[in-house]
Records
---
Amino acid sequence: MTTITKDGDKRILVVDDDDQVLFVWSNALASARDITLVTAQDGQEALEILDQDGFDVIITDLRMPRMDGYELTEAIRRHNQDITIVWLTGYRDPWRSASTSTAVWTNP
């Protein structure tokens, strides 16, 4: 887990098993004001972090070991319907589970 704090009002949790992806997100959001960024390596670690803290946005990869992004989303939705969840994937199957109430946006 990595935490970058900017004494922010907004808390973002980025979940991905690829260290390079976490590095890119950390660098991209490092200059943003008013955010706290926390990273996790998989869905299980993310749930452990969520048990300790609340977040405004969760950005998660879909394919990860131990607990993937689909399972993570379903677990979060059982407890918190209001949190924004953004799915990221290099694969073309983001439609696997429509029952999670997560919006999926596609580029034109």
---
Amino acid sequence: MPNSYRMNLILSALLLLLANTLVAAEGDVSMHSQFQVKRHLVLSAGMDQPSDLAIADDNRIYVLDGLQSRVVVFEGSGKVRTTFGNAGSGPGQLRLPMGIAIEDRQLYVADSGNNRIAIFDISGRFVRNIALKIHKGDEYLPEPVALKVVAGVITWSDRRNHRICRNDAVSGEQLNCWGK
């Protein structure tokens, strides 16, 4: 996909997040010529805190709704396709998720409130959780807030312990950490 098209799609998705907060807006929320979103479509997702997004190869936009502990999936047109996840600590449940990334048709969620990384397939089916390790001398449980997955390695930031860590995406094994 051309880089300019992908950049336009990313900008459009960011504007979608912004538009979700514009409850007082009237009529159309104009974004990009390829991405017109009616106010009722944006608000129909009912998001409370869109905190991060990822765009799949098929141009679907996966938006993390932190306060509702779920993922909202939009078509490239802005129409809500589906949602998945709910509040809790069980398999497939999230608590105050903050970051989201896609690699190899899997969705990785920084599940901050549960101190783990949750993995779903791109259709929303739960795959597994990676429990994050506490290190000797840590004052707090790890709290992942941002993540990126490249070449089978999850790199994530630990807000509570002020460090960056890396885990193998397949085994979940922690590779290394640095920082405080």
